[in-house]
Write a structure and sequence with these properties.
Length: 164
């Protein structure tokens, strides 16, 4: 089973988001008022994201991560953050010039796509799943979570996750 998990806003966030409500963190992101927003190397896991993704990996999920960064250097920084915080191994993907998130999702064709609702950047119209071709959408289980809300509430069981 392939899982494509968006990184920023879904499983990691800027370090100064810690201790704030989801709404406050989204406002920091929307307004750009926090200096750590662009300090990707200091990003931290949201809640128990590491534990949750490890549960899925232990059940045989093939993990792919999708970052909002759009060049190899910045994507590598996000990959380093994932490794530093002990996220399970998985291929980190990013959009190259002229490529969109939907293109990556269509190429990977995950069984499950986990992404946040993009509330700080425009909502549903900015989500990956929204733009996937209908014939591929039919095969992808979309799991949308509130941006910066974390994935702690999602089932540990892959079987239960697919039934959401």
């Amino acid at each position: 089973m392939k899982m494509l998990i968006f990184t920023e806003g879904t499983v990691i966030m800027h370090k100064n988001g810690l201790g704030h409500t989801r709404e406050e963190i989204a406002e920091q992101s929307r307004t750009g008022t926090d200096q750590t927003l662009l300090d990707w190397k200091s990003y931290v896991p949201i809640g128990r994201a590491v534990e949750k993704v490890n549960h899925w990996k232990d059940q045989g999920a093939e993990i792919y991560y999708l970052t909002a960064r759009d060049n190899e250097t910045d994507a590598q920084t996000i990959n380093t953050v994932l490794q530093k915080h002990n996220f399970p191994d998985g291929l980190l993907l990013y959009s190259h010039k002229g490529e969109h998130y939907k293109d990556i999702a269509e190429r990977i064709q995950p069984d499950i796509l986990i992404e946040d609702d993009c509330v700080s950047i425009g909502g549903i119209s900015e989500m990956t799943y929204t733009h996937i071709k209908p014939e591929i959408k039919k095969r992808v289980k979309s799991v949308s979570i509130p941006e910066f809300g974390g994935i702690d509430h999602l089932p540990d069981s892959l079987e239960q996750l697919q039934k959401l």
